[in-house]
Amino acid sequence: MDARFAPLFEPLRVGPVTAPNRFYQVPHCSGMGYALPQTLAAMRAVKAEGGWGVVCTEYCSIHPSSDDHPYPFASNWDDGDLANLAAIADAVHRHGALAGIELWHGGSYVANLGTRLPTLGVRSMPAHSDPSQSQRMDRADIRRLKRWHRAAALRARAAGFDIVYVYPSHGYLLSEFLSRALNDRGDEYGGTLENRARLFRELLEDTRDAVGDRCAVATRFAVNGHGAEHLDATEARDLLGALGPIPDLWDLVIDDYEEEMGSSRFVKEAALEARVRGARALTGRPVVSVGRFTSPETMLRQVRSGVVDLIGAARPSIADPYLPAKVREGRIEDIRECIGCNVCYAHNSRGAPIRCTQNPTIGEEWRRGWHPERVPDGRGRVLIVGAGPAGLEAAQVLGKRGFDVALADGERAAGGRVSRESRLPGLAEWARVRDYRTGQIARMANVALYLGNRLEAAEVRDYGADHVLIATGARWRRDGLGRSHPVPIAPLRGQVYTPDDVMDGVSPPGSVVVYDDDHYYLGPVIALALARAGAQVRYVTSAGRAGEWSEYTAEQARTQRALCEAGVEITVNESVAGFDGGVVTTACVFSGRERVIPADSLVLVTSREPQDALSEALVGPEGEEEGATVIRIGDCRQPSIIAAAVYSGHKAARELGTGEGAAPGRDRVVIGAPARR
Ligand code: ADP
Ligand code: SF4
User: Among this protein's residues, is 463 annotated catalytic?
Assistant: First the structure.
């Protein structure tokens, strides 16, 4: 045990249960929920194994009238859910951690697309993303809701959970009741703060009454909402004081995902600290809160200074399920720090199972049997060409497996795209993808990194490795081919640039149009970089909003705001039809109507060209056979997000020489309840 961090390993009594330490995995979505019960249980189990003292479920629906289809939420509707829930609690208990469950009713937010039941609200309100409104709850509905919540709490206890949540935040049913703007009721559940909080208080008391003998009652409460529909900070503090001792634990958040779990482009570590400070004194109960904590020093300061009792984490526990164990053992340099890209959240938003840029094993614990810290032994000589995310990940995995690894890159610095991109505005933390891996490799005698070594096919052959991994990446196209352009843009004349040029330090002269047909972060970030360097910039996108896919990473609004604030003109729903060197012609994506924008330079953020010449030279046009000695990984095989390149490098390296990987026999969804143990 590293004595410096001993306070983080002190047990803490929470109502009738005791957390073994201060590392608390708060509820976080997984994209698995009811749909992938064994995958989910195994993912939560690894967190407990890695030292998280409390491990919680994602939002867990208490009744079919709270159905977030098509997103795979957890469910606790009836006894049929018991086995799946028990599998999670049991898996967590096996490693000595407490299991928490976040009981949830979505209220007007959901649309019940699966169950087709009427949705319920404090009043009739539009669903979050469907053309449907909720039914206003009458007193009988409120009585029923209370019965459902109590029954769900009892099932949670029967399934073995230690901490049971009441969830009045993030815009769901109970926060509708709390809201001064949304709650227009004339009965005892509307009007004064006391009345608006009545249902919340009743559920806290009911839950305590139902399961409080054995389970701690926790609540996920927003200390500072944004906008009229949420509690303001004063009301929140009043409630913390008024309801303080009823729950055993306050899990403090804010009612704005873009900030609470903001990407590192916009929100840094410990961002909620100022708003959470003082809550502990008001409630007299233990407090947990999040802040994308990856630095043990920051965690220690949070606990020592009494801001919180428990370090809450979702993303840091995803990026490194073994973070607590590494802190305990003083292996700080081995922590795989979250980079704050929100790719984890994005895939839940897409209805897909979780993934992580830093931790390629998350979600694969059950399906593929991958462990974040353990790899199978292996032997042989491997040459990896390209030290971007894919090559670096492959090198560190193969090194840990025991292979002799040579990793070569033509550049003088490792990291490939992450090194280049991390120099752009807001992306500095992305360098952690490189730094974690180069840090690991540097301590392995069996891995040699050769920078400034651009290899040709003959050199690769001459090296005589048993296996060659080609990780030569991808480059942005200069011809405009992309989502909106199946053929190159024509004409394209004059000063035409790519993001690679800008990242190489080229400054496009004069007024610049940045054309974004990619729709993720890079177009807006390039526009921002050029504007901050003093250029007059217009951002044109074929999508409806700037960086539209960033909606899934909870950063679209801030992306667009940042462009506005930097003075970037924004044109949406237009694709670039041509550039003659002085005028960009755009076409409306709906009508085709053309218009012209005078510009001196054009930067094309459209699509990428895999750099696969080396692998073609080595393998030939037939491509790779199963079990081949030359394997393409990462962007040179399939340009995608960084998480995909890391995953690809990890998979190839983990499976090399094991005979696994060809047949996806274990990649299946198991329908039905798994056996208990
Ligand atoms: P990925 O995301 O798949 O890891 P990147 O584009 O980030 O891909 O990184 C690819 C890396 O490969 C770059 O650093 C590039 O310099 C390197 N590279 C490309 N071709 C060669 C080559 N022939 N020899 C050595 N390194 C190469
Ligand atoms: Fe952090 Fe990105 Fe991993 Fe999410 S996907 S845990 S934000 S590194």
Answer: no
Alpha carbon separation from 261 to 32, 244, 252 (Å, rounded): 19, 25, 13
Nearest to 615 by CA among 390, 360, 357: 390
Which of 292-296, 357-361, 604-608, 666-670 has the least mean pLDDT?
Answer: 666-670
**Measured between alpha carbons, how far is 171 from 156 in angstroms, rounded to an integer?**
23
Q: What is the 531 CA–ligand 1 centroid distance (Å)?
A: 29
**100 and 163 in contact (C-beta within 8 Å)?**
yes
Q: Is the CB of 471 under 6 A from ligand 1?
A: yes
Domain boundaries, the chain: 3-349, 381-473+611-655, 478-609
Give 18's DSSP letter.
Answer: E
**278-292, 310-324, 651-665: the lowest-pLDDT one:** 651-665
Atom of ligand 2 nearest to the CA of 318: 6
SS3 state of residue 522: helix
Q: CA-CA distance, 479 to 545, in Å (whole number)?
A: 23
Quote the CATH superfamily of domain 3-349.
Answer: Aldolase class I (3.20.20.70)
Q: Which of 172, 189, 322, 647 is catalytic?
A: 172
pLDDT at 1: 77
CA gap 118, 66 in Å, rounded: 9
Nearest to 549, CA basis, from 539, 559, 537: 559
* The one-letter amino acid at 332: I
Mutational pocket test of ligand 1: of 449, 472, 636, 637, the residue with most ligand atoms within 8 Å of the beta carbon: 472
